[in-house]
Write the structure tokens for this entry.
Amino acid sequence: MLAHIGEIAGLGVSVCWTLSALFFEKAGSRIGSLPVNFIRLFFAILFLGITTLLTKGIFFPSDATGYQWFWLGLSGFIGFYLGDLLLFKSYMIVGSRTAALIMSFSPMLTAMIGWFFLEEKLNALEVTAIMVSVTGIVTAISNRKMKLNIPFKGLMFALGGALGQSGGIILSKKGIGTYDALAATQIRALFGLVGFIVMITLMKRWSHVIRAFRDKAGMQAVTVGAVFGPFVGVALALFSIQHTNTGIASTLMALVPIFIIWPSSVMFNEKIKIQQIVGAIISIIGVSLFFM
């Protein structure tokens, strides 16, 4: 089990991000996506600071080197801010299902960027595992009604979201080294939060954020989402890339569309389709190859 601790952490990320997606969806329907993005990062920084205060005796990562601040900060800005911003814009143009389909290719992008930028190499079994897992994800989230004539602007936004996610993972691995995963996550969240602060200020949307804090049900949902998302989930993600190849870690983290099938059917009364079951089985086969 210890030999595959990075892969196990990657699976843990998908579980956490599945829970965060469900609660962020609930929160977004009440308070809006922009306040959710700001509040989730604000709470994540707070939770991470309290945890590192108890474990390391410091609230902010003042023990990080300039090198770590630069690469992790850049990772946070690209992953937490730009990547998520582009992804949300693609939702408005091509819809969440089509955007998710394009985003499912992020593991392959991560593997290619990792090979070029970090000189990471994958063996034939690992490449096969990535391809099988991604095939399962695509099968689970696609449908016959999806149009092939995707608007170019929406396609570019979705690809930008996928590149933002992949770039964030690669830059995180370059910057983290052996540094504490929780403190590294806090650095990333700080830079992502700065991006949203600037955006909210320029758009003059602070009144929306203040109003969101008064919505009790919305705040409860975003708090739970923040715990499983940018707090525990992202910290596990950084731990995962510390202990395994970024392409493998990215693939295991991308299994959210598979893990979310059953809980979303319970919470939102969504009917489970045969293709989702088939996709889940294919993805499980792909994941199992990583542990052979």
Q: What stands out?
A: The radius of gyration is 18 Å. The first helix runs from residue 5 to 31.
